[in-house]
Predict the 3D structure of the following.
Amino acid sequence: MKIAQIAPLTEAVPPRTYGGTERIVSYLTEELVRQGHDVTLFASGDSRTSAELVPCCDIALRLNPRVRHDIPQHVMMLEQVRRRADEFDVLHFHIDILHFPVVRDFAERTVTTLHGRLDLPDLAQLYAMFDDIPLVSISYDQRWPMPPVHWIGTVYHGLPRDLLRFRPKASGYLAFLGRISPEKGPETAIEIAARTGMPLKIAAKIDKVDQSYWKERVEPKVLRNSNVEFIGEIDERQKADFLGNAAALLFPIDWPEPFGLVTIEAMACGTPVIAFRRGAVPEVIDDGVSGLIVDTLDAAVDAVRRINGIDRARVRRTFEERFTVERMCRDYVAIYGSLSDVIAKALGSQNKRAKNAAMMTMST
């Protein structure tokens, strides 16, 4: 199958540090190639892939100080995709909504995975207008705010089995990994650590939009708590040690999280997750098996005290059963195949109508 993967240009594929969507695009692309598919990746020029790379900008936009706005770069990428669209059996988009008007004429050959939140007030009207675009959710909870649209599947994220090594024993610290923003709950993580007396290590990205939140709300709490260490952004190699050595990953989110990639990264290491019951958390974490799901700060504090009761080997087995890249790729290939079946039926109907029309013409 000839497949185009269209990635955001904000980060490289895979990203050097933070970047969940681009990381998933990379894992999926490499597994599709490994399984023998002919894959073309539209991404930033500093991406690394075994697929054919179409560089749509020199480097990831977040790393380019000359780029002020990312829309022009993405529009130019879409023009390249449009010009080559007929080369592919399936075009798989990971860029949110920008491509919707461009692909209208060949929407039946497209898949769009929505990686973000869908509860924002302006989105319902837009998705209602483009209700013919085939969409994939990354959890069932992600779908709830949407009007009736063309959902064709839900595919949970997956990781390569050997990406993060299982660690049967942990050091005595809690981990927070992700992004410094109010919805991710770094202040809550610090409070949990303070109340349990356990060290907390924070490895996180700080976007420009969250700089004031960091300076005014989070950094003072870090400085006041001697058991809290802020590390900053980390790469894939550092992530293995950071998560693998943690007693637990804290995931104290306060928003409708569509998936939570870091939770399955922790599971791959055998590290259990203590997570607030928001968004897709109950779909991803098996309560009492791969972690503990809580509803309050007090319950989170109690969960830290009970976390040693979670079997780390069983956490790893849960990852292998549910969240490998092989399973993710298999799910997407099934969706690609379902699109091909629909196209084949449509072409068959068109051919039948054309044949009947020709016979009628001949008979007259």
